[in-house]
Amino acid sequence: MADGKAVNTDSRSTGLERLIEIGLALSAERNHDRLTERILLEAMDISNADGGTLYLRTEDDALKFVIMRTSSLKIAMGGTTGVPIPFPPVQMYNTETGQPNFNNVSAAAALSKKTVNIPDAYEAEGYDFSGTKKFDKGTGYRSKSFLCIPLLNYSDEVIGVLQLINAKTHTGEVSSFTAEVQRMIGALASQAAVAIDNQKLIEAQKALMDSLIKVMAHAIDAKSPYTGGHCQRVPELTKMLASKASDAKEGPLADFELDDQQSYELHVAAWLHDMGKVTTPEFVVDKATKLQTIYDRVHEVRMRFEVLRRDAEIKMLKAIARGKSARVERKKFRDRCQELKEHWSFVAACNIGGEFMSPEEQDRVRSLSKQKWYRHFDRKLGLSWTEVKSLEKQPPPEEGWEYLLSDLPEHSEAEYNLGEVTNMCIEKGTLNDDERRKINDHIVLTIEMLNELPFPKHLKRVPEFAGGHHEKIDGTGYPNQLKGEDMSWPAKMMAIADIFEALTAADRPYKKAKMLSESVKILWSMKKDKHVDPDLFNLFLVSGTYKDYADQFLRPEQIDDVDISKYLDQPQRAAE
C-alpha cells in the first residue's frame, strides 16, 4: 500500500506540474485560434482521448463548433487548420418551443453546468446520439466514451463546452474516462475558461477602443466631409507602407519589423493623427475661397458691384433729364458697365485662390477696393450682441460712403482676420496667416489630447507617431521642428501617407484632384527638399505602394502611367 501511495503521489505531482505549465501557456497565448486549439489538444493528451470537440457559446445560446479532432481518422478541422467545420451549432434551447435541449449531451452539460461522463454512448439513456451513430456508420468509427465538461467563467456563466471522445488505455483499447482523468480535465477546463474569457475581454476592450477611434474620425467626418475621408484613408496607406517596410530584406529598413502589438499601435495612431481637427472650425478646414467663412462673402461684394452699376445707370438718367446728350451719356454708361464687369471678373477670379497671386494682382485688388458706394441703412442694426460690442470703439454712421472692399475694425476683433482686402490678397491658396496657424495648431491639440489618454504600455508611442506627421526631416516642420534622426519610422511613414492622400484626394472643395503622376512628382520634389524621408520615398515607389493605393482609392480618371525610374536615387532599384 505504501508503494501504491507513493506512486499516486508522484502521479498527482506530475499532473499538477503539467496543469501549471498548461495554465501558464494558456495565459500567455494571444491568438484565439491557437488558444482554443491548444486547450483541446492538451485535454486529449492528458486524457489520452482519440477525439474531441471544443464548442463556444454564441450570443443566441448556441454551441458553435470551434475545434474538432479525431486522431485515428486523421480529422482536423477548425483552429489553425483553416478547414471549416461543416456542422451547424448545437442549440441549447429548442428554437420553436424555447424548452431546454437536454437531449444533446454537450447542450445538457452547458445547461446543467455539470460534467457529463458517459461510458458508452450506445447504451446511454436520455441523450440523443443519432447524429453520432450516423457519423459512425459513415466512417466505420465506434464512438463509445464521452466526457463533456462545461467551461465556466468568473461570473459562473457557461462560455463553452469541452467534449472528449474515446479514452484509451496504454494498450490502445477504448475505455471510459476515469474519475481522476475527469478531475484533471475539470481543472484544465477551469483554466481554459479563464484564458478564453480573458482573451474575449481583451478583444472586447480592443473592439471598444477601435469603435471609439472610428467614432472620433466619423465626428470629424460629420463636421467636415472633406476631411473625414482623409482620416480613413491615411491609416490604410500608412499600413500599406509599413507592411512593405517590414518585408524589406536589405537597406536602411532591413531591420524594421512590426509585431502584432506594434502594428496595432500604428493603426491607432494613424486613425487618430488628426484628432485635434475636431476643434478646428469647419469654415477654416473647408475654406474653399478666400472670402468664405460660414458662407462665401463674395456674394456681398458682387452686390456692391450691382449697386455701382445701378448708380451709374441713375447718373446717366439724371444727366439726360438735365438736358445732356443722351448718346454721350449712354456711351459713358456702357463703358462704365464694361469696366465694372471686367473688375468683377477679376475680383471673382482672385477669390478662387491658386498656386500664386502676383504682387501686381494684389496691388490691383487694393486699388479697386478704394472705389466707393453709398450706404443708406444703419449697419449696426440686426446684429448679435458680440458684433455690436465689436463696433463700440468705432461705431459706423447710420449712413455714408463705404469702400468696395474693406478691412474693417470688426474684421480683426475675433480670433481670425476676416478683412476683405487682406483675404483677397492671399498669395497662395485660400487661407490667411491666422487660419493657417489655426490649421497647424490641430497637430498640437492632437498631441495634447492623446497625451491625456492613459494608453497602456504597448500603445505608449501613439502620441509620438500621430504627432509627427507634419515634421520634416530637415527640421523645418511643426510643431517640434524634429529632424529625420529624431523621428521614428512610423512617424515618417505617416508623413508620406498624409501628404500623398492630400495630393490625390478628390473630395476637397478648395482644389481639384491631382493625377497620380503629378502627385508622385510633387512628393518627389518634397523628397528633394528634404521634407520626407528618401528611403521611404524610394520604397513607396519600388514596392508599388503608390499604385496599390491608387487602384484602391483613386478615381479611374486620375490613374495614369508613372515612370518611377525618374524619381529614384538609384534607378536600377526599380527592377528589384
Q: How many separate domains?
A: 3
Query: Strand pairing plus helix content: what structural class?
Result: alpha+beta
CATH fold topology of the largest domain: Hypothetical protein af1432
Could you give the distance between the termini? 74 Å
Which shape, going by the Cα principal axes? elongated
Q: Which stretches are poorly predicted, pLDDT < 50 over at least 5 residues? A: 1-9, 571-576
Query: What is the C-alpha radius of gyration, as a whole number of Å?
Result: 37 Å
Estimated share of beta-strand residues: 5-15%
How would you describe this protein?
The chain is of the alpha+beta class. The chain has helices at 2-28, 32-47, 105-112, 130-139, 179-223, 225-247, 260-271, 282-285, 298-321, 326-352, 359-369, 385-390, 420-424, 433-451, 462-467, 489-504, 516-528, 534-542, 545-553; strands at residues 49-57, 62-70, 75-78, 90-91, 116-118, 146-152, 158-168, 174-175, 372-375, 400-403. The chain folds into 3 domains: 2-202, Beta-Lactamase (2-Layer Sandwich); 224-285 and 435-575, Hypothetical protein af1432, CATH 1.10.3210; 298-430, no CATH class. It is 50% helix and 10% strand. Strands 1, 2, 3, 4, 5, 6, 7 and 8 form an 8-stranded antiparallel β-sheet that branches. Strand 2 (62-70) and strand 3 (75-78) form a beta hairpin.
